[in-house]
What we know:
The protein has 118 residues and is α+β, with helices and mostly antiparallel strands. The protein has one domain: Aspartate Aminotransferase, domain 1, CATH 3.90.1150. The protein has helices at residues 3-20, 58-65, 89-108; strands at residues 26-31, 34-39, 42-47, 52-55, 71-72, 78-80. 27% of the residues are buried.
Amino acid sequence: xxxxxxxxxxxxxxxxxxxxxxxxxxxxxxxxxxxxxxxxxxxxxxxxxxxxxxxxxxxxxxxxxxxxxxxxxxxxxxxxxxxxxxxxxxxxxxxxxxxxxxxxxxxxxxxxxxxxxx
Length: 118
């Protein structure tokens, strides 16, 4: 994917977030040959080399996978969106909303304490 295509993906994602949740601060960075996006410090989207992938709860992931053009990724948490979603941020919005809600819930969940071995 070219840098201009990544910029297009980035712009679509940021527009979708801005339309839904202007209070959410989105950052991104290149990583492991792809790119990741964070909402208020929680990773919610990634590009693994094909299309934009969103971190979704199981029921939303299943619903998105039922749409033509959506695809699973190597991660059980992420589903690639259909390619046309990048050209129309409004198509991304309901999925981005669920993704941000998920990462906010995960961030609020109490962290499990590790037991020290004696």
